[in-house]
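User: Can you write out an input/output pair for a complex, sequences first and structure second?

Assistant: Here is one pair. Inputs:
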Amino acid sequence: MAKDIEISNSESKFILEALKLKQRLDGRACDQFRDVEIELGEAYGDVTVTMGKTKVQCRISCEVAQPYEDRPFEGLFHITTETTPMAGAQFENGNNTGEEEVLISRMIEKAVRRSGALDVEGLCIIAGSKCWSLRADVHFLDCDGGLIDASCIAVMTALLHFKKPDVTVLGEKVTVHPVDEREPVSLGVLHVPVCVTFSFFNPDDTEENIKGEHNGEISIIDASLKEELLRDGVLTVTLNKNREVVQVSKAGGLPMDALSLIDCCHKAYGIVEKITDQIQRAIKQDSIARNQYAHILSSENARES
Amino acid sequence: MSRFEIYSPEGLRVDGRRWNELRSFNCSINTHPNAADGSSYLEQGNNKIITLVTGPQEPASRSQVNTKQASLSVTINLTKFAKMERSKSSHKNERRTLEWQTSLVRTFEKNLMLHLYPRTSIDVQVHVLQLDGGILGAMLNGITLALIDAGIAMYDFVSGVSVGLYDTTPLLDLNSLEENAMSSVTIGTVGKSEKLSLLLVEDKVPLDRLESVMAIGIAGTHRIRDLMDKELRKHGKTRVENLTN
Amino acid sequence: MSGAISVTKRKEFWSNDLLEGDEYESDLGSDEEHDVEMSGAHDSNSGVDHQDGSIVTPGELITDDPIWMKGHGTYFLENKTYSSVVGTVSRVNRLLSVLPLKSRYIPETGDHIVGRITDVGNRRWKVDIGAKQYAVLMLGSVNLPGGVLRRKSETDELQMRNFLKEGDLLNAEVQSLFQDGSASLHTRSLKYGKLRNGTFVKVPSSLIVRSKNHTHNLPGNITVILGVNGFIWIRKSSKMDLSNSTTATGSGQSDHLPGSKNAMSVSITRLEEESSWEIYSDKNDTVTVSVRQTITRYANVIKALAHCELGITEPRIISAYEASMAYGNVGQLIESETMESLGQDVLNSEKMRGAA
């Protein structure tokens, strides 16, 4: 097993004492999400998301495959999350059955795939025999907390950015047109789920948490790695802009008052709105940049002269 | 699925319950006194679960030794015959099972007084004999009973139940037919409080409906807590009588 | 019990809480079984919701009266004391604790236990006694061949496996407890040591009631050691068992010699004489078929009592043994119907005796 990162007792005490005074190590407010930086690559579907020191890359690729027998009208869509020691010493190479790894991959799976964010029926080429098989490979390049949030943004942006090659179907014959021959087509993205992670800390004794009245638990948004290591509980909320809760996961940890959990969901909505807008802006800018010569190449120009 | 009427206009569900009714709930403890330190058998509707707790005991390996508190582990055995169709795989290394195990460990870590048992390990095994929706909630209940039977100190009961949202009506304690037809929320509550130890929403639920779903879920878990409490007292009474006669 | 304590005094009380708590906890154990029977004997304080001996479940409020000190099985927030296990409320002086109905064996100094060697280490053996952690038996806490006054030498350290090795069963006494609750054992008495000539039965430790004597000579030339930890050893009575027996057994037909010597009063000279290599022998004496049958019968009778969740005591074993004579086949005794009817027989005969 890979060695866990350990924080010295004095430092953990320092961080917790500061949190009680609503102070965080990086100077953020308790409910402040880190600034998200979205970088779109040269190829379609290559996205790098940076949040503070956390860096996640997502790359989408596709190939023609056979659909599942019980779902002839649907294409295939897989998300693979690869954790390597590149992200941090706490991850093990090639072994993705660690607690943290499983939770991250399940969460992204639930948030994106099971919520139907991608229109898999649009991946169908010929019902029952040919379809697109889409893969999203998520690589964790650097980890300073918030891996789930960052990878969800990365996957969703990549899906919006990706374009699959155009195909023509003539009877049973399928022709795939290379990207440089014919303009590729975008995927059908039905909604954009965004994850927001809350971390909970218990400032008092456990007895106070279980039986006490005053619900003094501290909750912060988008914890850094050190805060993640010290937290007593975690809640990941996935929402989309339509005010739909796609997924909520509070898998154990510090018991929290139901109302404050709902309050967290509402807080998350504000952040989700902002991030969704940012994703869409990035996609738009990219498509403008890619088509900067469109007006030169346009045939209209030629006629004017 | 469409042939079933999930929720009739008269307010009845597929199995004849109303929206706020639990399935039949039966439990017993100390079912395997020779095999384990604590054990329970639980039926929540058609879910049938055996839970065994061994420990606190000497850890199997040196690496498990934690000098501050006991190390807790949960193993889920989802039997091949638990569903209508016999499944081919043993579900053992499925991500879903691993996720459940982690969730259960993290839930009980905060509710057990593990600091009282340093340098020991507590192992929980859950055997799902029959599966019919809301299994995670049922596992929470089964483990709570088995841990109490083992005499391991805990702050309070943890009781779990699932709630679905059918259109705008929340439905309590889903069976698998209902679970497949609508989005479900699993809730694990601590004792009689409104504190949630576990909250899992697996499908789309409108943000503004979440509160009403949670409210009925909390009421359901409190009811289950009372049912478990009753069984424990009944068992305790006969035990005390036998011992002091 | 003083009903009211002023607030100022209580503050002082809090600070001493930990220190005093430990003291009280240690002497709590000896009164354990006594307390359960005491139910209702205490007068009730106002604001105390639960009487002595009443059953509570985890998270349940026991009292909101601040005068109580919090013992095992409880936790508190401000003035309120809650239970953390299912069990019976116990009050000793001002210490409030909840005795769990069932739990792993918790060792206490002076307990007579049966254990199994799991590990031979540096000048010590690790012994599985069914508790949270393995107990420790130091090389210095055993009698070695050659008498007590002999010094332990390096050769003894090297040949520890010749005395006790992995898998050996022994009976011993808890000498002391470590900080974390694990036990240190000793076998410095003739009644302790390696076990031979019999069979092992394990029952939940909660069924064994702590008492003065845990070695009983039973009718049929059998000796049983009821380890407080729920480990039981049933063997053919040895000469020493018979000469050591002090208590008259409940039944009249006991065929052992009348008690002549107290086990505790074995003189040092005697001890020396007995401390030969023989006490670490692995060889069984010849045990006849009929004795083996009787041992099995006792073993199954004890299993039956455990099945019915009855406390296991000497009179009960004898009573169940007598009742079991109705079944010719010893193997029949562990059928669940038979076990239940045996348990019922025992309870009935106890009622009869109580009525008479």
